[in-house]
Amino acid sequence: MKVLGKRCFWITVAATVCACKMNAQTVAIDGEFRPRAEYRDGFGAPLPENNDPGIFAFQRTRLGANFSSAILKTQFTIQDTRSFGKTSPNSEIATLGVYEAWAEMLLMPGLSVKVGRQAISYDDNRLLSASNWSNTGNSHDLALFKYNVNDFQGHLGFAYNNASAISSETVYSTSKYRYLGFLWLSKGLAKGLTLTAIGVDQGVQPTSDATKYGTKINMNHGYTYGGNLKYSNESCPFSALGTTYFQGGKNQTGDDMSGYMAAVKLSYKISPVFAASLGTDYLSGDDNKTDGKQKNFSKLYGANHSFNGSMEYWSTPLNEGLLDYYGSVNAKINKKTSIEGTFHAFSTGKDMTNKGASIGKSLGSELDICFNYKMNEWTNFQAGWSTYFANDNTRIAKGMTADAKTRFPQWGYVMLTVSPSYLKSIFTDK
Fold first, then answer.
1. Is 328 a member of any domain?
2. CATH number, domain with residue 173
3. pLDDT band at 24 (very low <50, low <70, confident <90, very high)
4. Is there a domain that residue 22 lies in?
5. SS3 17
6. Domains contained in the chain, number
7. CB count in 10 Å sphere of residue 51
């Protein structure tokens, strides 16, 4: 029986390889031009009233080439990001960089390996994300093993960074981590119901390495683990997502990590035009910085802009933790136009104190409005406006006095995304 099983396996592999030779091969070249202008009048923190708001524009430009067949896929993307006026047109300073450069090879049916610089995104992008809103985006140099059979997926990734080719160990500080390993699993439980689990091991060199450890390897490992339960079915107007993550190990300074977070989001499609969502996020805080423990939750390499308000007041959880209750309404006006409004009510997990006195938990609230218009197949226009309703606690949390005179916080932007396809050719082996 064992011999027969081995023969069946190799017959399957041979049949797959033979079939691959008859499949089409696709070559595509595309680009992206994404200029965005922003008006920041209290973005990230209230702006003192004697300051003028900031107005600026920047652009992300990408050019990508892709090859795809049944047994091999490759992607190469170069990227230039800059603020308007930062670099003179006559400057000789190089600005181009490689955003993606990877090859994915089929090892056997259902199993492939993807090696090189690549953007990775999982679940709702809270831990690992391509961070598309960012002008630079986010990518990693790693090897990624991918297994996909029926309704089960498994991804195993490894990264190990150095500043250059070395013959003996040196202290590494170019990236946020020296080593990264993660395992992501996804399993369909029922129609529309999916359970995912992830574990991330991040190795960083201690801040004392340069003087204490010299040229010997020493890394502190922080562990993040948890999962998501998602329900989404096109035949049902209701969808839901539940998320929980925990953290352990040690951070870069050697403190023990014990942070956690939990989130729930419920959505309902009221009609073909309107949809509504309600949700809450809780991120643990650290109200004792001297006990050798990091209790606040670290979001690793997730998408900051996608959570806890577009004005990014609380991208880093406060010492008292963060609780965000939010609700949103999305209106799809037609096939090309939509508008979404989201209201956030923020508070801390524990009472805040000021000069030894308790001042409660409220951190104010925020309103975000986003307008989208798809002009054509290649062009999308987006505009947004947000305002923050700050209170005394907001100003105290941002290092100001409760009665500090500040401008009315607001932020707005307009963004044009043009994604032309320069070439797409399909070739078939004879």
1. yes
2. 2.40.160.100
3. confident
4. no
5. helix
6. 1
7. 11
Distance, first Cα to last Cα, the chain = 38
User: What are the residues whose beta carbons fall under 8 Å from the beta carbon of 258, sequence distance 6 or more?
Assistant: 247, 248, 293, 294, 295
Radius of gyration from C-alpha coordinates of the chain:
24
Q: Are 113 and 145 in contact (CB under 8 A)?
A: yes
Residue 9 lies in a domain: no
Residue 33 domain flag: no
**Residue showing tokens 């070559």:** 27
Length of the chain: 430
Q: Which domain holds residue 179?
A: 39-91+98-428
Give the pair of three-digit tokens for residue 323: 């609780």
DSSP bridge partners of 413: 38, 384
pTM value is 0.89
> pLDDT of 177-193, one tens digit each?
999 999 999 999 999 99
Q: pLDDT tens for residues 322-377?
A: 999 999 999 999 999 999 999 999 999 999 989 889 999 999 999 999 999 999 99
Q: What is the DSSP letter of 305?
A: G
E strand spans, 109-192: 111-118, 140-149, 152-160, 179-190
